[in-house]
Amino acid sequence: MADNKELLVERADPVAWLTINRPQQGNALNAAVLDAIVENLGALAGAGETRCVVLRGSGDRFSVGMDLRMMALMTPKDNQRLIGAGGPLRWTISAIESFPYPVIASVSGHAVGAACELAMSCDLRVGCGASCMGMPPAKLGIVYPPEGLERFIGTLGLPVTRKLFLTAKYFMGPELYNMGMLDFLVSDAELEGFTKELAHTIAQNAPQSLKGHKQALRLLTDAASLAPEAKAEIDSLVTEALHSSDATEGIASFLEKRRPSFKGE
Fold this sequence. Notes:
Elements: E1 7-12, E2 15-20, H1 31-47, E3 52-57, H2 68-72, H3 76-83, H4 88-98, E4 103-107, E5 110-112, H5 114-120, E6 124-128, E7 132-134, H6 137-140, H7 146-156, H8 158-167, E8 170-172, H9 173-179, E9 184-186, H10 191-203, H11 207-222, H12 228-242, H13 245-255
Parallel strand pairs: 2-3, 3-4, 4-6, 5-7, 6-9
Antiparallel strand pairs: 1-2, 7-8
Helix pairs in contact: 1-4, 7-8
C-alpha cells in the first residue's frame, strides 16, 4: 500500500482509513489522488485482512470536488476523459463499488461535485450538522456524465436527483439525511467516534455474508443499466457542454469568486 502524502493510509485491522490530504486545496481531487485510492483499495483487497474501509478528508472537509484550477488548464477533451468513462474518477468509483467489503464515507464539511458522487458510491455515509453536499455542474456550464447521473438516480431516485442537478444548491446535514444522502446523522463532535464504532461493528460480521450481500446488492442495482444509445446521447451532451464558452466562463467565475455570465453558447 502506498501513502503518497496526498492520500494517507491508516490500517488498524480489520478497518482501514483512507484520508484525502490536500487541506490547502480543500482536499480537491486530482488524478494522482484518485489513482492512489484505486491502488490502495486494490492492495487492501489483495491482502484480504480488511473488512471495512473508511474514506474521509483531512481537516474539516471531505472534498470540494475536482480540482477546478487543474481543469481550467486542460482541454475539454482531457476534462471529459478525467470525469467520464475510462477516466480516473470512474475507475475510483468502480474500485469502491467492487471492493469486496463495505466502504464508509465519513462526510465532514463539504463533499460536492465529483466528491459528492465519490461519497454516494460508498456503501454507507455518515455525516453531521456541518456536512454539506451538492452537485454544482449547472453553475459551471457542465453536463454531468451519464454514469454519474445513473448512480444518483439509482441511489436517491429521480426527484432528489432533479433537485440536486437542477438547483445546483448545497444542502446541509439534516436536509441530507432526509433526502437519503446520509445514512447516519450525528453531532460534529461525534462524527469520528461514531464512524469508528460503525466500521468496527461492520467488520465483526461474517466476512462471507458481507461480501455476498455487497455483491448481490450491486448486481441487483446494475440490472437496469442505461441503454447504449441513451448513454451515447448523454455523452454527446457532455462533450457539447464542455466545449462551450459557458463551461469556460463557469469554471473561471468559480475560481474568481464572482457570479457567472452565461450566454447559452
